[in-house]
């Protein structure tokens, strides 16, 4: 009986560890000024990774719409907006996709990776220039 309990506990520990080692889940954005503006749900669909705004944290922006978006997303609420699109796993990185900044209407090449279990490195590229943010996991 004790052996069975140890096996079960071991299984739970391995399962929890493997769950923590993923980019999938909810992440609180943190901009270059240390401000958290929203929560983004990172999810997988058809073998690619996407990120959608699931919560707006700044009160005055809770009902804001994307004025600088183009196409179908123009004038749509920030809430529900897909910021990260089409990332593919390559080793420890997810890349070859894009990230959209609704504040300036620009889309950038994107790469994300786990910095640690609770920190997601999010990097946007424009040619050889880049900007990096470190998002925090929402528990």
TrEMBL record:
Residues 25-137 form the DUF2147 domain. Keywords: Signal. It comes from the Bacteria. Gene3D superfamilies: 2.40.128.520. Residues 1-20 form the signal peptide. The keyword Signal applies. Pfam families: DUF2147. This is DUF2147 domain-containing protein. It comes from Aurantibacter aestuarii.
